[in-house]
Amino acid sequence: MKSIRSRQLAQSLVLLALSTLGSSAFALSTWNFSGGCGAVNGSTNNATLTCAESSANASAVTVTAWSVATTAGANYAAASVGYYNPNGFGVTYSAGTGYSAESTSNPQHTLDNSGRTELLMLNFGSSSVDLNGVKIGYKANSSGGSTGADADISVFRFTGAALPSLSLSTIASLAANSAGGWELVGNYADLVTGTNKTVNTTDKTSSWWLISAYNSGYGAATGTDQGAANSGGVTGLQNGNDYFKVLSVAGNATPKTNVPEPGSMALLGLGLVGLVASRRRGQKSV
Ligand SMILES: [Ca+2]
Ligand SMILES: [Ca+2]
Ligand SMILES: [Ca+2]
Question: Are 152 and 213 a contacting pair, CB within 8 Å?
Fold first, then answer.
């Protein structure tokens, strides 16, 4: 009688542990940039920022910034991640061959496509992420005001055979992203401040993602959220006039390892204690 109870108890514990592990493995993960991830508020010169996943159920993301000229074949150059509490991350670039340094004042301190096109590169370590949301915390017009402010983005994932390092030579040129291992997942128009923008509805995954200010030079628009080119206004996808800060990104992450969570381990431990006690009682009664 008691050995049957023990088996039932063990089976229940296994099912409970599996269901607990299963729910955590497919939980939605969020990487929030509003706290700066260690950066000082207002700092414009961060080469790299590492941001933990909000619920600690996926690996941290390493964020770097890049800029590229809007001419075919141009190469990307490293830029700086700026942190602005509580609006998130912007991008600023230093002087390079043929161009001068960008102003760190509003609105050029944002992630923008005025002059050079800027982007954030996200490296999720060994976690494979189905990126499905991008939220901005701020957007501005070309004068730094809010009237007519726009935020159109292009999102890429890395699909190359070897993971890219953060060196310049591994970043594709504007005209050859696919050849460099970067796939344009989609262009998304008119992001709203404080509202999560759904991206990547076909659930593509990668450990490396790019969030860029929109640039039609990246290639034909793809995805489900395209708008018509609208050079005279801000509605729909349109080159230029995009100035924004990235507040957070969200996605479904495959955990780096399959190590059970502490809660599951404690549950299993308690179960084993109960199982042993139950068996001992059973042995005594024989
Ligand atoms: Ca900028
Ligand atoms: Ca727009
Ligand atoms: Ca635009």
Answer: yes
Average pLDDT, the chain: 78
Measured CA to CA, the distance from residue 35 to residue 32 in angstroms comes to: 7
Residue 20, number of CB atoms within 10 A of its CB: 16
Q: How far is the CA of 226 from the centre of ligand 2 (A)?
A: 10
What phi, psi does 215 have (nearest 5°)? -145, 120
Cβ atoms 214, 153 nearer than 8 A: yes
pLDDT, tens only, 34-67: 999 999 999 999 999 999 999 888 899 999 999 9
Give the separation between CA 13 and CA 24, rounded to whole angstroms: 17
Identify which has the larger pLDDT, 272 or 118.
118
Long-range contacts of 225-229 (CB under 8 A, 24+ apart): 225/186, 225/187, 225/188, 225/189, 225/198, 225/199, 226/186, 226/187, 226/189, 227/189, 227/190
What is the Å distance from ligand 3's center to 189 Cα? 7
Q: Which of the pair, 237 or 262, is modelled with greater confidence?
A: 237
Contacts of 110 (CB under 8 A, 6+ apart): 90, 91, 138, 139, 140, 243, 244, 245
Q: What is the DSSP letter of 208?
A: E
From residue 146, give the alpha-carbon distance in Å to each of 63, 190, 211.
Answer: 27, 13, 22
How far does residue 81's CA lie from ligand 2's centre (Å)? Answer: 23
